């Protein structure tokens, strides 16, 4: 029951790939300064989620169509976004911002090491935690609850 309450209280987002702005991500004040392209190609300002705790997760495999089919098959109820680059020169500004605010434990850089790297964003749009891909999402419940 506690898990159901937690999930209903957060806006969970899976970003397969994001389109975001501002281009100079270092000047952004929060994730609300960015937008993302959803799985249907529509631009969504992230300020839509203002006041909610967000879980931003990257997932790489598949095309947008395959990702959409997968999420429908599994009854996904949260917003899913179009595929984007999260590392390298072509990484979108939002992911550069996420990695700037929570660089992770990689000793050489802040790269996303693998699919399902998770970022927790508080109600004010601040990136407050970064978790490793292998961490079970259910283990995030206490972290998410402390920001609700």
Give an account of the 3D structure.
Keywords: Oxidoreductase, Peroxidase. GO terms for molecular function: peroxidase activity. InterPro entries: Glutathione_peroxidase, Thioredoxin-like_sf. This protein has 148 residues and is of the alpha/beta class. The protein has one domain: 3-Layer(aba) Sandwich (Glutaredoxin). Helix content is 23%, strand content 20%. It has 4 helices and 7 strands, in the order H-E-E-E-E-H-E-H-E-E-H. Strand 6 and strand 7 form a beta hairpin. The radius of gyration is 14 Å and the shape is globular.
What is the CATH topology assignment? Glutaredoxin
Low-confidence stretches: 1-11
CATH architecture: 3-Layer(aba) Sandwich
**H and E string:** HEEEEHEHEEH
Number of domains: 1
Per the principal axes of the C-alpha atoms, what is the gross shape? Answer: globular
The end-to-end distance, rounded to whole angstroms, is 16 Å
- Trace the largest sheet across and list its strands: 5-1-4-6-7
Tell me, rounded to a whole number, the average pLDDT: 83
Describe the sheet with the most strands: 5 strands, mixed
Question: Total helix count?
Answer: 4
The CATH superfamily appears as: Glutaredoxin
Work out the number of β strands.
Answer: 7
Identify the CATH class: Alpha Beta
Q: Approximately how much helix is present in the residues? A: 10-25%
């Amino acid at each position: 029951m506690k898990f159901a309450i937690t999930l209903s209280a957060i806006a969970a987002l899976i970003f397969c790939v994001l389109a975001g702005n501002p281009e100079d991500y270092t000047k952004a004040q929060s994730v609300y300064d960015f937008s993302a392209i959803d799985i249907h190609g529509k631009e969504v300002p992230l300020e839509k989620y203002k006041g909610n705790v967000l879980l931003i997760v990257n997932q790489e495999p598949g095309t947008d169509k395959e990702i959409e089919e997968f999420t429908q098959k599994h009854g996904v109820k949260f917003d899913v976004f179009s595929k984007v680059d999260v590392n390298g020169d072509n990484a979108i500004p939002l992911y550069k911002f996420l990695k700037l605010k929570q660089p992770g434990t990689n000793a050489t850089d802040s790269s996303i090491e693998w699919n399902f790297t998770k970022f927790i964003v508080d109600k004010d749009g601040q990136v407050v935690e970064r978790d490793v891909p292998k961490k079970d999402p259910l283990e995030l419940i206490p972290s998410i609850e402390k920001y609700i």
